[in-house]
Amino acid sequence: MIRRARLRALLALLLGLIQPALAAEPDLRLSGTITGADHQHFIATPFAVPAGVTAFSVDFSYDRSGGTVIDLGLFEGQRFRGWSGGNKAQFVVGDMVATPSYLAGPVAGRRFTLLMGVPNAKPGSRSDWRADIDFAPAATPPLRSGPGWYRGDLHSHSGHSDGTCANDAGARVPCPVHRSVEAAARAGLDFLAVTDHNTVSHLSELAGLQPAFSRLLLIPGQEVTSFQGHANMLGVTALAEFRIGTPQVPDGAAWSRAMAKLGGVVSINHPALPSGAACMGCGWTLAGTDWRGVTAIEIANGGAMAALGGRLDTPLSGIKFWESLLNAGHHLAPIAGSDNHDPTIAAPDARAIGRIVTAVWADALSTPAIMAGLRAGRVFVDTDAAAGRTLDLFAITPAGKIPMGGTARLPPGGVLPVEIALTRCANCTLTLIVNGTAQPPRSVTGPDTLLALNAPITRPGWLRAEVRDAAGRLVLVGNAVHVAAQ
After folding, report:
1. How many whole angstroms separate alpha carbon 4 and alpha carbon 132?
2. 22 pLDDT exceeds 80?
3. Gyration radius (Cα) of the chain, Å
4. pLDDT tens, 141-182?
């Protein structure tokens, strides 16, 4: 049972999908016996994968007591799909990702051969073997359990798209994924999404790296890069549609439907950037976007901040774009991403991995939990991550405390009590913003502060908090609490 639990966890890790846990029995079980006559022979056992399957797992075991050794591999007809020898008893093969030693590719409706090589089987010996095969992923155990603030970077690039770094001779080359992961680990992040442009080729590398990083969650991601805007798809491995304007995806409504089918978290990247020859489609102009399928707006982008002195509150910020959608009644979380294209860039440059982060209140450190946290909206952006500050806001109502991302009812008297918790921010200034109007700022002298305020709000809308440091830099932006009519 322990082996099967680990394998199901591996399958879920590779796919980045959220599915209910399955029963202990496999979907398919292959079995047989290796005898001394099989010494230094190959044994082939065929099996079929049903239609509609995107990945399958193999959990292989055998009796080793007699000294028999069995190596393992996989073919699809005459096509080689992998060989792990004796170093992996469990592996996953899927459309887009596969365990290292194996090759990703289509699996649905195809016939495979489990190939066993027998380098050693003593005369007269018998060794029973079994291969349990499953055709769907299950939930993966978290890297860390328990609710709390988890901090990470939701936008970065590697050599699988336009990420570059210097090689040992100083030349610029496509940068390997592991350098981004190592940079995130050095920065002390809890999670990192590598979001290469219009591809999922990097996801197998992420899956291969995850076991080496027990404290850093590697979230599958991709940046949809179109002529009308850029958006991240997070938490799934299926390729997101980017061919907007073609017969396959003629308009924004069709794109929204295609994205919704994948079941991931969609964020709109750097929406206020100008589009042009230097950055085609960087600003978001896609007509017909169904905002019900969008979870977040990237209000803080490391590249945009670095271009204007490292500050967030500039015309390139996504804050105004986000607020316009809040005004229209959409419930969207603010997020940050370094948009890193070179993991050797170091802080204080905003493009450095881990310099600006998204903090998510989640039940655990796992891809499903972080995605659920983003959807719930208890989120804040930290543009000065080295300080490790936290910002939390609750509306106090007769029904209880309503957290960021939640919805309170319009108070009869036009005043909504609010509680704001701020940590590690001595000599900061906190401002409550109600329906786009900034209230008088409050000075914060102690490192940890709990403020009780009254928010004047006489019509449905929203309220949020933001914090500036002693130098006047905008360093924390919290998500909104929405206010609905009674």
Report:
1. 9
2. no
3. 25
4. 899 999 999 999 999 999 999 999 999 999 999 999 999 999
The share of the chain scoring above pLDDT 70, in percent, equals: 94
pLDDT band at 18 (very low <50, low <70, confident <90, very high): very low
Buried b (16+ CB within 10 A) or exposed e, 114-138: bbbbbeebeeebebebebbbbbbbb
Give backbone dihedrals phi and psi of 483, rounded to 5 degrees, phi first. Answer: -125, 115
Report helix, strand or coil for 223.
Answer: strand
CB 351 within 8 A of CB 341: yes
Q: How far apart are CA 319 and CA 312, in angstroms?
A: 9
Which 3 state secondary structure label does DSSP give 234? strand
Give me 133's structure tokens. Answer: 């095969």
CA-based nearest residue to 381, from 318, 321, 334, 319: 334
Residue closest to 32 by CA, chosen among 44, 50, 48: 44
DSSP 8-state class, residue 37: G
Residues written for the chain: 486
Task: Write the pLDDT tens digit of every residue in 55-86.
Answer: 999 999 999 999 999 999 999 999 999 999 99
CB atoms closer than 10 angstroms to residue 398: 7
DSSP string, 156-199: B--TTTT-EEE-TTS-EEEPPHHHHHHHHHHTT-SEEEE--BT-
Q: Quick count: other Cβ atoms within 10 Å of Cβ 44? A: 10
Q: Residue 212: exposed, middle, or buried by beta-carbon count in 10 A (0-12, 13-18, 19+)?
A: exposed
Cα distance between residue 223 and residue 191, in whole Å: 17
Residue 389's closest CA among 147, 149, 144, 185? 149
User: Phi then psi for 254, rounded to 5 degrees?
Assistant: -65, -40
CA distances from 486 to 72, 423, 436, 460 (A): 64, 33, 21, 9
Q: 153 has which bridge partners?
A: 192
Element (H, E) at 229: strand 229-234
Count other Cβ atoms within 10 Å, centred on residue 274. Answer: 10
Contact between 130 and 29 (Cβ < 8 Å):
yes
Residues 74, 113: contact at Cβ < 8 Å? yes
CB 67 within 8 A of CB 16: no
Residue 316: pLDDT over 70:
yes
